[in-house]
Each structure stands twice: as C-alpha cells, then as structure tokens.
C-alpha cells in the first residue's frame, strides 16, 4: 500500500525540462570535442580534426537549437538524472567517429569513447604504437573532461539554483543554493586545474616529455588510466615517474571538498588538516595501505615474485586500483588468483565521494561497517535507546543510509548479471569477475579479456557497466523506470 501511495505522488518527467537541460549539458560538452579538433588541426591531422569539429558542431547545434524551449523554474530529480544519463551516451556516441582514428571498427571506437568519458580506461586496443598524437590526446582529454569539469561547466552554465544542484549531483542546504552554486563550481574547477598543473610540472621535472606529461596528467588527476604508451606505467620508465603519476591519481580520488577545507579562512592550521583528514580520507589511505600489504604478501607467497619486485610494484598497483585510476606497472593477467581477488575488492570499494574516482566509494563502506557495529551493539542497549549511525561527530539520516545501501545493492546486482554473461560465453570465472568489477567501478585494469577478439555482446555489456558505474547506476534505473515517463506531470511554471 505504501508503494502505491508513493507512486500516486510521483511526477513523470516533462518534455520541456528534458529538452532545455539537455541543451545546457550539450553546450557544456562542446569542449570535449572542440579542444581535440584544435589539437588535431595544429598537428596537421586533417581527418581527425574534421571529425572532432563535426562532433563539436553537432553538440553546439543541439545546445543552441534547444535553448528556445522554456524551462520550468524547478527541475525534478528524475529529470536531472535522465538528462545526465542521456548526455553521457550522446556525447560518447558522437565522439566515436573521431575515435575511430581511421582504423578502429565502429563498435571498438564506441567502446573506447565510453571508456574515456566515464574515466574507466578499459581498451580493446592491443598496441598504442602507431596511434596518432590526436587520438592519444583525445582519449586523455575526454577522461579529464568527463571526470569532473563537465559537471562544473553544467553548474556554471545553468547558474545558481536548485536545478544546478540537482543536475550536478551536489548536495547543499536550500538556503545556501543561491549564493553557493557559483562558488562551489569555481572552487571545484580551481582545485581540478591546480592538481592537473602540479601533476604536469612534476612529471615534466622527472623526465617525461611535454606531450607525455600532459597526457598522463590529464589521465591521472581524472583517475582515468589511459596511457600514451604500451605497458601503462611500465612504459613510462623510472620508478619515481611512475610513483608521481600514482600519487596524482590518489589526489584525484580524495573528495575535493577536503581540499577546500585546507584553505578555509578563520581556521587554525591544525583544524584545517583535521578537516582534510576526515574519516573518509583516512579510510581511503587505510584501504591503500591494506591492499598494498595484501598484494605484496600474495605476490611473494603465491605469485613466485621476489620481495624486491613485489615491494616495487605492489604499492603502485594497490593505489592505482583503490583510486580507480587503472594504471599498472605489471601485466595483470599474469597475477596469481589471490592478488586478483584483492584487487577485485579494492576496485569494488573505490575512492572518495565527491572525487573523480569510481566504485561504491569509501564513505559507503564505512557506513556499512558502522551499521554492522550498531547492529551488534543494539542488543546491549536499553529498549528505547536511539542510535543514529554516522561518521565522526555527525550522524546520517535514514534516507541517506537507505540510499547508500541501495546503491551498494544495485552495484552488486549489475556486477553479478554482467559476470553471468561472461561465464555463459565460456570465459574464466575469476578473470570475468575482475573485468566486470573493473568496468563497473570505472577502473580500467584488465586481465586481457577486453581485447579486439571479445564478443560484440560482451563489449556492449562492458560499455553498459562503465556507463552505469560512472552514474552510480541510479540514474540509469530512473531512465528505464516506466513511472519516469508515464503519469501525471508537474506544472512548468
């Protein structure tokens, strides 16, 4: 009865809202194609430049042509989720043509485009040798753009208000919306740009070439993982260069709100650092340390690797998996089964909420552990005691806890269904689970299944996993729910 009552109160999406806010996001996505077009033009790669320019023109036409549609004063949450879900697919589809680079089959180009814009880093390419500089730049640029900037630009283009908050996925009190939307957008963009610039300068100082440093910085801060060379991290050369790129990825996996806390006015330095290293940041660092220890131990005891080799590669691989960057110093396919299982758990959890990382997020893991702690403690409490699970000094309301549990549950369901498809095709169960978790967590580490020989249906399964994982699945479920499209609609005024 409660479910029926809730359905009777629900509003379907409105056509005007979808068209207008699709126009806003299409306008925000123009840069994802325009910048590669300019880069290819400067590199005198005329075919690539024309393909990217056409994609930019189409996105711009969608944006400008739809701006004449009047938008409602408030956008509903289901409308916001539908707009974002469709925008990612639309942009990935338009960018598939330039990503063909004159050689890739269209399905593989679409796979690569989805992988880039969702900051995953999975690839069907066997080798990067011979790929044009425009292609290598574009895949890194799409990851950088898809990681955070597209959300920031959407907030800036739509201006302050409830609509911007819902479309950008940010959470803030209503009283702070009018004055805070532009401030948060500028701060997020500033932090993203500073991290990228610092990463570029450090990589350059450690011996990377200018183009290589640029591409790696774009992929690193976005926790994307596309490398300009074969061998991923191993192709970069020196260990300090590899470690700096992994640290940049870890910086991208920290919630960006924590960086703002470091520069907050009126706070003592000690309070700023305490705000930065909140329970979620500490949880992320603890996971990185734990995964490192387990990886080193498993590689030495079960993988036949020397201690020196394990200590050199283990931390890099562990942080890469936990931050969902997907860079790797070793061939993942050659790892022992226990190491793969450790990485599966790490990729499943992922990085911090409000960062460029994927996975279920460390915050949700901590909340589930807190719920378990409360469940164990409750039998010892008085009958009327009220315990609100939370982290630090703050409790979490029931609605947030239900949403967190729901996201984790649906994430598991998507992984199991996708895994079943791979197993049905006869692929190794452990490698299949690894590949599916990597895609859904937007990580990009691969056991070798994501190659040109992978069955077309399974390529589409992984594309769906990457898309759903980037949107934390909820947006896709809303898009597919019949109630989203059928039923009464709110007034547009």
Mean pLDDT metric: 84
Helix/strand class: mainly alpha
β-strand amount: under 5%
* Overall 3D form: globular
End-to-end gap: 31 Å
What strand order characterises the main sheet? 1-2
Rg over alpha carbons = 22 Å
Give the biggest beta sheet: 2 strands, antiparallel
Q: Poorly predicted ranges (pLDDT <50, ≥5 residues)?
A: 154-179
Number of helices: 22
SSE succession: HHHHHHHHHHHHHHHHHEEHHHHH
Strand segment tally: 2
Helix content: 55-70%
Overview of this structure, please?
The protein has 493 residues and is mainly alpha-helical. The chain has a domain at 10-274. It is built from 22 helices and two strands. It has helices at residues 2-9, 15-28, 30-42, 46-66, 77-99, 106-117, 133-158, 162-168, 177-205, 210-221, 239-253, 256-262, 269-276, 279-301, 307-322, 337-349, 362-377, 398-424, 429-440, 456-470, 474-480, 482-485; strands at residues 390-391, 394-395. A two-stranded antiparallel ribbon has the order 1-2. Helix 6 (106-117) crosses helix 7. The protein is globular, with a radius of gyration of 22 Å. 49% of the residues are buried. Residues 154-179 have low confidence and may be disordered.
């Amino acid at each position: 009865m409660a479910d029926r009552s809730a359905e009777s109160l629900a509003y379907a999406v409105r056509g005007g809202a979808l068209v207008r806010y699709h126009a806003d996001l299409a306008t925000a996505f123009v840069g994802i194609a325009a910048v590669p077009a300019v880069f290819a033009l400067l590199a005198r790669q005329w075919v690539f430049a024309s393909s990217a320019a056409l994609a930019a023109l189409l996105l711009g036409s969608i944006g400008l042509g739809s701006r004449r549609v009047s938008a409602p004063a408030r956008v509903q949450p289901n409308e916001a989720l539908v707009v974002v879900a469709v925008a990612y697919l639309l942009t990935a589809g338009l960018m598939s043509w330039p990503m063909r680079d004159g050689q890739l089959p269209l399905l593989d180009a679409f796979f690569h485009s989805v992988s880039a814009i969702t900051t995953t880093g999975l690839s069907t390419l066997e080798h990067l040798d011979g790929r044009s500089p425009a292609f290598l730049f574009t895949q890194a640029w799409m990851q950088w753009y898809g990681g955070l900037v597209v959300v920031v630009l959407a907030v800036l283009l739509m201006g302050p208000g409830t609509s911007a908050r819902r479309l950008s996925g940010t959470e803030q009190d209503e009283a702070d919306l009018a004055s805070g939307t532009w401030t948060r957008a500028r701060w997020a963009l500033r932090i993203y740009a500073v991290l990228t610039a610092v990463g570029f300068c450090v990589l350059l100082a450690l011996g990377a070439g200018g183009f290589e440093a640029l591409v790696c910085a774009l992929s690193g801060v976005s926790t994307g993982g596309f490398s300009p060379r074969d061998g991923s991290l191993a192709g970069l050369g020196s260990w300090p260069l590899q470690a700096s790129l992994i640290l940049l990825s870890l910086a991208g996996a920290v919630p960006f709100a924590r960086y703002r806390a470091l520069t907050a006015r009126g706070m003592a330095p000690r309070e700023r650092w305490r705000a930065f290293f909140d329970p979620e940041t500490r949880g992320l660092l603890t996971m990185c340390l734990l995964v490192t220890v387990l990886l080193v131990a498993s590689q030495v005891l079960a993988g036949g690797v020397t201690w020196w080799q394990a200590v050199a590669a283990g931390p890099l691989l562990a942080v890469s998996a936990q931050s969902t960057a997907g860079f790797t110093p070793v061939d993942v396919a050659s790892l022992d089964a226990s190491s793969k299982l450790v990485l599966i758990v790490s990729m499943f959890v992922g990085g911090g909420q409000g960062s460029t990382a994927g996975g279920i997020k460390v915050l949700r893991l901590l909340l589930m552990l807190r719920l378990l702690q409360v469940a164990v403690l409750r039998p010892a409490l008085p009958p009327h005691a009220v315990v609100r699970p939370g982290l630090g000094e703050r409790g979490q309301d029931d609605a947030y806890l239900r949403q967190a549990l729901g996201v984790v549950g649906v994430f598991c369901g998507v992984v199991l269904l996708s895994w079943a498809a791979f197993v049905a095709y006869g692929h190794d169960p452990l490698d299949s689970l690894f590949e599916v978790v990597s895609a859904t967590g937007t990580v990009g580490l691969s056991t070798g299944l994501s190659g040109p020989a992978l069955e077309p249906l399974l390529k589409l399964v992984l594309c769906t996993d990457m898309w759903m994982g980037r949107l934390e699945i909820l947006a896709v479920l809303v898009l597919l729910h019949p109630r989203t499209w059928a039923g009464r609609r709110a007034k547009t005024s």
